[in-house]
Automatic annotation (TrEMBL), chains A, B:
Coiled coil regions, renumbered to chain: none
Source domain of life: Bacteria
Keywords: Kinase, Transferase
Lineage: Bacteria, Candidatus Eiseniibacteriota
PANTHER family: RIBOKINASE, SUGAR KINASE
GO terms of molecular function: kinase activity
GO cellular component assignments: cytosol
Name recorded for this polypeptide: Sugar kinase
Length: 314, 314
């Protein structure tokens, strides 16, 4: 089998300080591109487009390299790396940001080389939609593009966020973001509304309730993988994206069956990410860990429907 | 094929006045036993154990009889029928009770005759857990018993609610109730905790997010059926219960496949209930309506998982 095609991610590489009811991490590896890359690296070769400061620890570089992640697009700028400090309360799922230092990220401007421009699979992680569009338009003929966003951009640049949605194959949003952008309370209706507004397809992430995929032709869901010990929800969405896009790159398919499998793989990778602080579990997980979780998830939803309605006994 | 075995429900038959953003109903047929019975009646013969006042409209009786529901256990007491008045705000799903008049229901004491005591399938709808236990203990050798409850009883009689959970085969709760009773925030953990506390199996209803089934041996989920027009969420849970238990009665099976199908049927019946005020859609729905929704729901979750993990391309 030939190697899976490359996956490119543009996003943040950061140092996160996180506190949850189950522990804390100080200046741990974080950022959307980091979680995505380490997740997708289980399935396909990954290239990162991002920027760090000259204080970025060498051990984090080695962590990426140990997973085969291509860092030639990881620019080192004079100054400090992007830092985020946050905490989660008992109702895990909602982060309270205590401090954001954009540092070198504030002037980040992705520079794509020839190999980046020919990437077949692309993830536009949560950055300014203007940058997402700029990168998207430089990619020559991608097979599949995936985007993410956040409430911050939906509140400030809703039109640009919608423009991104129209220019990618699959747009990832969480429940709250989908409701805000679509102006619809029910998640299913919000998904339909985004399609009407020009999105090709959307995945609405619903935390412990799983995720919904919606396109013009198809609609399906995956439950979340039931984790025994949720320790830190940071990076769940980007790890989901890494599993989803990485799996599609590796499988070489894009039919309904492959999309359903990819959604399940996304849920599995998200479950690994949240079981420990920083992307530690994503790095340590074996193919066997991933396979066995995918089988469990499959059993949670799959069944035979012999007769849609048994014969009327009366 | 012989007729499906009887299903007995003990609960309320009420007159509901409901207002939602999409309309209003005045003194419409309501109550847990009503929704359950009309839902389950599509699959099996149903008997109601309940009480109404002497003001209960004859047209509602005819509605039940038109669906073959046995009303010999529907007592008529001197006085007024149980009335509930509520409204739902934009965030449908949470009802605000404006007025509850228990009326004849306040002294309701179920009287079971010989045929009731030999019912193979029993639903203990949301009533005082002491009454649920009293009824449960009079049923001789049921094949399957299902219970429901509400926050009101969990707050006042948690031990009795847990006693009911231990004495039935399947306990239905919504998300909020499961969290409150189990003392766990995450729904999956709440389900596990209730099993540890002695429940045989639980179904946790999650509104637009579907439902989770959890037993000692198995765990699976169904999404909600995506309705185009949610008009009135009243009765969703009882309609779900009617589809679930009615389907199991009709199928004569209780294996994992049948339970998964029954969960899907429950979701379909709930979706019909909430598309209009009062149980109108439950009455009007044809077998074809139910079948086609079940197929849609099945397509939303089902897929082939040929290889849990494709060969490593590296």
């Amino acid at each position: 089998m030939s190697p899976a095609p490359d996956v490119l991610v543009v996003g943040s590489v950061a140092l996160d300080s996180v506190r949850t009811p189950f522990g804390a991490a100080e200046e741990a590896l974080g950022g959307s591109a980091s979680y995505f890359a380490l997740s997708a690296s289980h399935f396909a070769p990954v290239k990162i487009l991002a920027v760090v400061g000259d204080d970025f620890p060498a051990e984090h570089r080695r962590l990426f390299e140990g997973r085969g992640v291509d860092l030639s697009g990881l620019e080192t700028a004079p100054g400090r790396t992007f830092r985020w400090r946050g905490e989660y309360t008992v109702e895990l799922g909602h982060a309270h940001t205590l401090e954001t230092q954009l540092n070198v990220f504030s002037t980040f401007h992705p520079r794509l080389d020839e190999r980046h421009r020919s990437s077949p699979f692309v993830f536009l992680a949560n950055i300014d939609p203007d940058l997402q569009l700029e990168v998207r338009r430089q990619i020559r003929s991608p097979q599949l593009t995936l985007s993410d966003t956040m409430n911050y951009w939906i509140a400030r640049k809703p039109d640009r966020v919608l423009e991104v949605l129209r220019e990618v194959d699959v747009a990832l949003l969480n429940e709250e973001e989908a409701r805000a952008l679509a102006g619809e309370t029910q998640v299913v209706r919000a998904g339909e509304r985004l399609i009407e507004q020009g999105a090709q397809s959307v995945i609405i992430k619903q935390g412990e309730h799983g995720a919904l995929y919606q396109s013009r032709e198809d609609r399906f869901v995956t439950p979340a993988f039931p984790v025994e010990a949720l320790r830190d929800p940071t990076g769940a969405g980007d790890s989901f994206a890494g599993g989803f896009l990485g799996w599609l790159a590796r499988s070489g398919r894009r039919d309904g069956q492959a999309l359903r499998q990819a959604l399940g793989v996304g849920a599995v990778m998200a479950s690994l990410a949240i079981e420990d602080f920083s992307p530690r579990r994503l790095v340590e997980a074996s193919h066997e860990d991933i396979s066995s979780r995918l089988k469990v998830l499959h059993r949670m939803v799959n069944y035979e429907l012999e007769a849609a309605f048994p014969p009327d006994p009366s």
